[in-house]
Design a protein that fits this description.
This protein has one domain. It has one helix and three strands. 1% of the residues are buried.
């Protein structure tokens, strides 16, 4: 059975200037679906573009959670 939704962890590094100048960070993410029985085997791979909304009070060194806390990654 193929899962339609996955838990994805993305680490996005931006400068304070980037946060101050734009509240939306556009970034491409490569998604790979791997066979659990054979980790070297890739079932599917695609490149998707996402726009992450950065919370206004984000400062340098902060960790923001984009998935599961009301923040949604939108395709662009």
């Amino acid at each position: 059975m193929l899962k339609k939704y996955f838990n994805i962890e993305a680490i996005i590094e931006v400068t304070q200037e980037e946060i101050d100048s734009q509240k939306i960070i556009n970034i491409p993410i490569k998604i790979k679906v791997i066979n659990l029985n054979r980790s070297f085997e890739i079932w599917h791979e695609e490149l998707r573009n996402y726009a992450f909304i950065v919370p206004e009070n984000t400062k340098t060194g902060d960790i923001s959670e984009f998935f599961g806390k009301g923040n949604v990654a939108l395709g662009w």
